[in-house]
Amino acid sequence: MKIGRFIAEALFPARCHACDAALMAGERFICARCLHDLVRTRYHSVDDNPMAERFAGLIPFQRAAAQFFYRPESDMAVLVQDFKYRKFPGLARYLGHVAADELLPTGFFYGVDALVPVPMHWRKRTLRGYN
Ligand SMILES: [Zn+2]
C-alpha cells in the first residue's frame, strides 16, 4: 500500500454506507454485518417470480431477478440513494457483484448470453453519468 493511501485510510477510515461503522480489512462500501442483514428476495428460485410477473408481456426476456428487497427507511434504501444520488457508482458495481456471486451457484445464469438492466430515461442517465 502506498504511504499516502495508508495515511489517508488511517486518518479517514472508510465507513459502512448503511451503519457508518468503520470498515474492516476486506470490506468495501458496506460492513459484513449490514451486507448479511440485507433481505434477499429469492425471486429467482420461486415459480411465481414477482419480477418476471412485472415484466411479462412488456418486454421479451428469459429470466428476471431482484436480489434484494427495497423498503423505504431500510439499509437498502440508504445504499440505493447513495449510488443513485450521492455519486457512488462503485457501490452499485459492488452490489452487482454481490448479487452475481450469490446467483451464480443457483444456475440462474446458465445459458444466459446477456444481462439487461432496467432501462432509465436518457436525461437521468446523463445527469447521473451511469445506470
Ligand atoms: Zn454496516
Q: What labels would you give this structure?
A:
41% helix; 131 residues; globular; 6 helices; mainly alpha; 2 domains; single chain; binds zinc ion
Explain this structure to me?
It is built from 6 helices and no strands. The protein has 131 residues and is an all-alpha fold. The protein folds into 2 domains: 1-36, no CATH class; 38-128, no CATH class. The two termini are 31 Å apart. The structure holds zinc ion. Zinc ion binds at residues 16, 18-19, 21, 30-31, 33-34.
Short description:
The chain has 131 residues and is mostly helical. The chain is built from 6 helices and no strands.
Q: Helix/strand-derived class?
A: mainly alpha
Instruction: Tell me the number of strands.
Output: 0
Order of helices and strands: HHHHHH
Domain count: the total is 2
C-alpha-based Rg, rounded: 17 Å
Strand content: under 5%
Q: What ligand species are in this complex?
A: zinc ion
Shape: globular
Terminal CA distance? 31 Å
Helical content class = 40-55%
* Helical run tally: 6
Oligomer kind: single chain
